[in-house]
Specification:
- This protein has helices spanning 20-31, 62-75, 95-102, 111-126, 130-152, 195-200, 227-232, 234-247, 251-256, 270-278, 288-292, 302-305, 313-327; strands spanning 5-13, 16-17, 37-41, 56-57, 80-88, 185-193, 209-218, 260-263, 332-339, 344-352.
- By secondary structure, the chain is an alpha/beta fold.
- It has one domain: Peroxisomal Thiolase, Chain A, domain 1, CATH 3.40.47.10.
- Strands 1, 2, 3, 4, 5, 6, 7, 8, 9 and 10 form a 10-stranded mixed sheet that branches.
Length: 353
């Protein structure tokens, strides 16, 4: 079977960075007579409730759904696929417009309330108290903070961390620092090719990642009526196991051995908690603080600090994962995507080609 390879990945965040590498390769493809398929991650401005369109992807799981489609297209004979996402959340919307668009379950059921109720349902299933949940959330934030510092390296300074007001509670279970910070202007672009096309583009083998697997699963619906189904996270377990089986990679084992990197989806603490449990990286929530003190669960610093451009955080994570794997000694990367309140789940595993 033809192998899909991630051969270029670039982004611009708040006017930092450039897309020229991918755009240049796209131009070269056209000169070769190769017309790549284009898959698009929709922005906040798109109607959340509109019917899905072919080639367009919505929700935090959308980038992984697009990656899965790119993989399928390459394996069925396509030469190249471009996945792109752009959302100017900081400068492209008035505050009232942005908040109204983000109220995807209506003004009477804000995301903060939805995730609080989901966290309660999850906590009941795992028999932990609200105080225990908040302790775990604090450990997650510290993990993200250290990852964020490492990701920025020499560019990090304390002023980039949230102000004191973000440490105050916004619900009974969440502080501002526990939640995704969406205020970022983002544009990202990745190029997926088959190996023959990558050769034609003269892309070195050490600049390629094999897309080993993309596991996807979704429930029949989202929101308040599906809280209990989401809180079980059986569909996340299904997506993770599908990715591991298809890739023939024991990700949890590879990660513990220091051979792999990961980006858990960190919109609210309940989501990465669920991922760590279903993946087998931790057996009990009580084990999580010790695990988090030893292992980074993001390469970006998480959506709380690296910010989340609405439907694009998993695309951002994929781009950073590409950069980190090419530059480091690890050979495997995993990116997790969570759609809506959690009814869509995706897990992608990539590896050095």
């Amino acid at each position: 079977m033809t192998q899909a390879q991630l051969v270029a990945a670039t982004k611009v965040e708040d006017q930092q960075g450039q897309l020229n590498e991918v755009l240049h390769l796209e131009a070269r493809l056209e000169a070769l007579g190769i017309h790549p398929a284009h898959l698009v991650i929709e922005p906040l401005a798109a109607d959340w409730d509109a019917p899905e369109r072919e080639g367009f992807y919505r929700s935090g799981c959308g980038p992984l759904e697009a990656l899965g489609e790119a993989k399928r297209l390459i394996e069925e004979g396509a030469k190249a696929v471009v996945i792109s996402g752009e959302d100017h959340l900081k400068t492209g919307y008035e505050r009232e417009e942005r908040l109204a668009k983000m109220a995807v379950y209506g003004e009477d059921y804000p995301l903060t309330q939805a995730y609080t109720e989901l966290a309660k349902a999850f906590s009941e299933r795992h028999q932990i108290s609200a105080e225990q949940f908040k302790t775990l959330s604090a450990a997650l934030f510290e993990n993200h903070r250290l990852s964020y510092r490492n990701a920025l390296a020499d560019d990090f300074h304390d002023e980039l961390l949230p102000e004191a007001r973000w440490h105050k509670p916004i619900t009974e279970l969440f502080r501002g620092i526990d939640c995704a910070n969406p205020l970022v202007d983002f544009s990202g672009r990745v190029l997926v090719c088959d190996s023959e096309t990558a050769d034609q583009l003269e892309i070195a083998n050490n600049k390629r990642l094999a897309i080993k697997a993309v596991g996807l699963s979704r429930l029949e619906g989202d929101g308040k009526d599906y809280l209990q189904d989401i809180a079980r996270y059986d569909h996340l377990r299904e997506a993770y196991q599908q990715a591991c089986e298809e890739s023939a990679i024991d990700f949890a084992g590879s990660f513990r051995e220091g051979k792999a990197l990961m980006e858990a989806y960190t919109c609210y603490p309940v989501v990465p908690m669920a991922f760590l449990i279903v993946s087998g990286l931790v057996d009990l929530l009580d084990d999580m603080p010790e695990f988090l003190s030893q292992h980074s669960i993001t390469v970006t610093g998480g959506m709380n600090l690296a910010k989340g451009a609405w439907n694009n955080p998993a695309l951002n994570a994929l781009i950073v994962m590409y950069e980190r794997l090419l530059a480091g000694e690890e050979t495997i990367g995993l990116v997790h995507g969570n759609g809506g309140l959690g009814y869509r789940q995706g897990v992608a595993i990539v590896a050095k080609a």
